[in-house]
Amino acid sequence: MTALIRSGDARLTDATVTGHKFARQELLRRAGFRVPEFFCVPVAAFDAVARDLLPPAPDPGGEAELAAWAADAATRLSSAVPPGPLAAELHEAATALAGEHGLLAVRACVVADADGVGEDGVSDAFAGMTESYLYVRPEDVSRRVVQCWASGFTPQSILYRVRRGLSVGSVRLAVGVQVMVPGVRSFVAFSRDPRTGEAACVIAAAHGIGEGVVQERADVDHFFVDTASGRIKSEVVVKRVMMTGGDGDEGPAPRPVPAEQAEQPVLTDGEVRRVSDLATEVEAFFGLPQDIEGTITPDGAVHLVQARPVVFADRPEGPAVRWSNHNITESFPGLSGALTYSQARAFYRLIFRDLYRRMGVPDRRLRALEHHLNRMVGLVDGRVYYRLDAWLALHGQIPGFPLVRRWWERSMGIGGDHRPSASDKIRALFSVPGLVARAARRPGEARDFLRWWDRVVDQSTGMDEWTPERLIAFYRWLWAEAGRRWGVTLVNSFFLLVWTTLTSAALRRWVTDDEQRLLGGLLTGGRENRSLLGVRSAIALAELVCGRPELAGRIRSCDGEGDSAEKIWADVVSGRYGAEIARAAATHLHRYGDRALHDLKLEEPSPRQRPSMIIEMIKPMVHGGLTVAGSRAKELAARAEAERELRERCPGTVRLLVVRALVTGLRRAVKTREDTRYCRSQLFGLTRQVMWRLGDLLAEAGRLDRGRDVVDLTVEEVLGAYDGTLVDADLRSLVRARREERSAAAERPDPGVELTTPLNRPMPGGPLYAGGPAGARPGPPAPEPATVAGDLQGLPSSNGVVRGEARVVLDPSVSPESCRDRIIVAKETDPGWLFLMMAARGMVVERGTLLSHTAITGRLLGIPTVVSVPGATTLIKDGALVEVDGAEGRVRVLTAAETS
Q: What's the mean per-residue pLDDT of the chain?
């Protein structure tokens, strides 16, 4: 009997011998589908070679050990030589299959076990976990077969199996050798929508071969076919790149799409229906929704290359919990350590309890909702998320909340459009007197809060000399007082929503349908808030620096290798460049040293810990010659233009006075919010000082390897080391384990903005994406990368039109200098981004509202800004030339012709 299995052989349809991939292809071929001819190297050939080469499989344990074993196994298999008879038969069969000038495709497939679990199986696609080689010459087939065997043992493939609960020692592979069809267009089609399971065919198509679609290396058109009506919806892009055969041994390579095909759909409507019908037929044949791959040859013939069951995202059964990090990522972006999360959780529990108390929610009701207060924020795969059912249950207790719920949902990124019912409105009427009384007390309470807080900050100097007992006592007192007082800041935020609702309604009714654009200009001007004062303090420092040419030159050219920011800062505060600059630098550090990127994340330093950060912050200001007067002039010009438009558009003196009164109240509420947000940065700054100092003392006592290891302990564990309340006294082990968890999470894709988990099942302990634990669903996938010019629409936030090069910032720990004179494109920002924003010419942000930090800061700095631009960081490539119209909320990706 020959070693190879060819078409017509009954064994070819046995998935335990050839794998699901090739068993299905043979079944389809026999049923009359146009499947390219192929033969298979069965799993027995792999077994014969691998049994003497593979090292013993380790027990599932540490990822590092498994990855090392996988790499060793792959290396050994890569050096294998097929036995002489198999090699000879392979060459003979490949030559006959390819014909005189033909080429072949060589693909691997992990064969199914006795339970049917294997690559392209019903329960798990294993998609992309093994290798395929295209445009293979017959004489190279033996080498590619060996490489296919080795591809089953990549570290990612082995770790994938472990996460799915499968044995690493059971990896066995078959290899298919198939005629390489000379397709000029290719597609992937799902017979059901893979996101929802609805009866709609989803097709992705590109010029060239299918690798361009599967590996996202070509420009792709999308087609959506409603199965019931046959209606087609198309999303067509300009095609510039496709994948085709490479030169020599290179395999597929990117090639430019011919100009005449670039703007035309890859598929005509007739071809879309043919592909949709094919997907439906394959689904009917197998009795399951199918994911098919195919190619179209120059003669228009459609060839079916692969088919596998659609593996839908696991859906929680029964009630589900929704999670969102839509605007909490402004405060806690990316991964957060144990110290940061434990403090964030305490922060939300304490301050919102105080809010609800101040808004009139009875204590007995708060006690009944204590479990919701404890779980307002969760840690999901190392990232901080809001638990939305807890927020709704708690906020729903606030009198009058249904009237502002719509704005609150928008700020939380829920995307709802809640409309209060008649009964909601009636109940809200009864709460109006109490709300009015609280609104009247709000300004005085806010002033009292700010005065109290300034006293706290002034009394907390010299912590480096404090004993652990004093540090802990201060920390306990600080947070007890915050829990008693901080609700004032949230009461202001509640009434900020009320003012926003009323002001927007008045503008929309009496002035313009585009009320958000006008409101953006009206909110500028007025008294400076603390965040803006910090910015202008830095600008003033930069102005002084520019008056000292030697110092300005050092700052412009410092790069960390020769003259460093640390050296410059030391010279500045020592008085080398004069007492005035030294005093201004010291004053800025004292007043604004807690403001930095990620200033609520306790694992990140602020200028308080690393003062030389101030030099890095002002560097682009020194380059750009910013002035305080110029900053104020931009803000006042925007306000004057908005006031002029209001006067022209608003009929009647009474209406004009009402609108101005509402805008004035809203402007004051915004100022108070920004003032107290700066206080929040200081609150976490004081906490950072306490915890880092205790970490240093723990390291000195031998309990930690280094002081900074404290970021991987919870607050109560740090304090418990002194209070005697630790359950696990081995702090080093805790740090080591959490650091490994954080490192592993950093290697996984971001779970997304929204997640859904089952209500009555434990939270998954690992990644929340395909291949992660069942029962967790990530939010919708990110949009396909754009390669075309066009308009994106968002909320107009700060007037002005500007063109420039995009600076896509996914990790804001970039230098402000890298953003100088560019347009920042980001998912969201927090107050610590101010120094990046000041260097930029404009801003485009995926998230946010008219009252988000980005929108407010754009107006204060006078730079064109658009927020709430879905997919901006994906659709705009770093370095692309864009035009931002902050008045219209439009972002235009410019064509080469427009920029020439």
A: 84
